Amino acid sequence: MNWTLLKRSGGNAMDLGRPNLEVFAETLLNLASQDRDILAVTGDSRGSGKLGPFGKALPEQIVEVGIAEQNLVGISAGLTAAGKKVFAVSPACFLTARGLEQIKNDVAYSDNPVKLIGISAGVSYGALGTTHHSLHDFAVLQAINNIDIVAPADNFEARSAIEAAVNHPRPLYIRFGKKPLVDLHEPGTQFQIGKAITLAEGDDVTFIATGETVSRAVIAGQLLAEEDINAGVISLHSLRPFDETAVLEAAHRSAAVVTVEEHSVFGGLGSTVAALLMQNGISRPFKIVGIPDEYTVTGSQQEIFAHYGITPEALAETARQLVAARELTS
């Protein structure tokens, strides 16, 4: 992946940052050092969740439950009910599958504002394969009332999401991957759970992306700009609350829409955007880019992305086809 292609609006190259997991752990430690009510509860995830320094610095504020995701969620809900600010940390694939009943009943239905942290999300586990991929988490959690869903696109969004999560009044799920990410945002950018961030505006096509796919969409937009195709890019970091206004404005402005996600094409970002546009009478050439209805190929995250068209070059080609289709029918 050639991150040097990424440029800010002023032409300066974007910097390659750190993995969001590292930013999460560092931010949580800083916050917990000032607030004894902040707890980390882990399911044998101290190492993979980058919480080693947290455990050493604040041993009385970390709870290890072992490989027991249902216990992890139930204990976290109980501690939250007792007034603690709990971050429950576990691989996303297991947290949102094995612990789903407890998320539904102990967290969401019981209205305990646990902060559920799904680590190594999407296809981050790479060659470990389908058993370790979390391509279902958006879908199952969107079907459960009273839980917000966030997928940060870079270090700024990750840091901001954790800071916002501490006193967030509702149950919350945040997913993180494992790879270093480019810093996408200009200084002074404002972050709010439930409010999308527009990185670029375009009247030919708009990419609406979430999580670690956003940077690929940004590069795709810059490739299209070289062909005089005006592409917008939205970082829709929150699946819930869902920023309907930002999506509808982008769809009205653009001739075509492409959604991009590290998730199944069913039940995630693309499905939500499609339903919103259809119910508001907006018809545009439209494509959901994600993982299709199959068990994934085996490979690294980058190789899997390449296979399923989640690369800047493939996204640019998808956009070209939609723009061409629009021109033929106009």
Fold topology:
Blueprint: E1 16-19, H1 20-32, E2 38-42, H2 52-57, E3 62-64, H3 69-81, E4 85-91, H4 92-95, H5 100-109, E5 115-119, H6 137-142, E6 148-150, H7 155-165, E7 172-175, E8 180-182, E9 197-200, E10 205-209, H8 214-225, E11 231-235, E12 238-240, H9 244-253, E13 257-264, H10 269-279, E14 286-291, H11 301-307, H12 312-329
Parallel strand pairs: 2-3, 2-4, 4-5, 5-7, 6-7, 10-11, 10-13, 13-14
Antiparallel strand pairs: 1-8, 6-12, 9-11
Helix pairs in contact: 1-7, 3-5, 8-12
Write a concise synopsis of the structure shown.
The protein has about 325 residues and is of the alpha/beta class.
Give me some keywords for this one.
five-stranded mixed beta sheet; single chain; Rossmann fold; alpha/beta; 330 residues
Spans where pLDDT lies below 50 across 5 or more residues: none
Distance between the termini: 36 Å
For the biggest sheet, the summary is: 7 strands, mixed
Alpha-beta content class? alpha/beta
CA-atom Rg in angstroms: 19 Å
- Total strands: the figure is 14
Number of domains: 2
**How many helical elements?**
12
Anisotropy-based shape: globular
- What percentage of residues falls in helices of 4 or more residues? 25-40%
Beta-strand fraction estimate: 15-25%
CATH topology of the largest domain: Rossmann fold
CATH class of the largest domain: Alpha Beta
Mean pLDDT: 94
Could you give me the name of the CATH homologous superfamily of the largest domain? Answer: Thiamin diphosphate (ThDP)-binding fold, Pyr/PP domains
By CATH, the architecture of the largest domain is named 3-Layer(aba) Sandwich
Spatial order of strands in the largest sheet: 3-2-4-5-7-6-12
| N-to-C order of helices and strands | EHEHEHEHHEHEHEEEEHEEHEHEHH
